[in-house]
Amino acid sequence: QIKTMFKDPKLIKIDSARQCPPQISQQIILCDNKKHKEELTVALINEEKVNKIFIFCKTRIQCEQLSNFLRYKKHRSAFIHGEIPQNDRKAVIAKFHSGSIEILVATDLAARGLDINDVEIVLNFNVASSGDEYIHRVGRTGRAGKKGKAISLISANDWNQMSSIERYLKIRFEKRVLKGLKAQYCGPKKIKNSGKAAGTKKNKTIKKKKK
């Protein structure tokens, strides 16, 4: 019936709002603390050998600290956040576009509306605060049908939020371990049906009333 109404109709597939493009590999790496996250970030950059990595941090201070740490490790990195003047942000983004820098560290607020092609990896140094935010972050890679990777560094404090994102997307992230940097943290000892960590019940001490 549609063919009789339109000349040469085209089928357009629209991805669900709760889905990431299938060409994006979604992984998590368990970690122990901030220092371990920094070590994993450097190791990932060295192992992947890609031209453009977009890293998300929660705060502007974390953005600056991580970018400076990566520069100390001889990587071409820069950062943007809401406190940086617009002209300076544009200059940093232009360098990332051109390939003058390989790593852009940003907050979610500063990254809104950015249109950058050929980002090969999105690294969540800090886990996204919601499923929608995760989708927006991951959408920086895998554009125009190209393959991409979304990697999240997950500590014990991040587990429940990561689990909420999995439940929102109705998927399970692939676990990845980097050689020589395996975390002591292996995930919760007990997990609820929701995927979140099961809390340990505290033993209640009953005081006897004095007669």
How far is the first residue's CA from the last residue's CA?
88 Å
Largest sheet, if any? 7 strands, parallel
Low-confidence stretches: 11-15, 200-208
Percentage of residues in DSSP E strands? 15-25%
Total strands: 7
Please, could you describe this protein's structure?
By secondary structure, the chain is of the alpha/beta class. The chain has one domain (20-175): Rossmann fold, CATH 3.40.50. The chain has helices spanning 2-5, 34-48, 60-72, 86-98, 108-111, 131-138, 159-169; strands at 24-30, 53-56, 77-80, 103-106, 121-124, 148-154, 174-175. The chain has a 7-stranded parallel β-sheet, sandwiched between helices. β3, α4 and β4 (103-106) form a beta-alpha-beta unit. The longest helix has 15 residues, at 34-48. It is globular. The N and C termini lie far apart (88 Å).
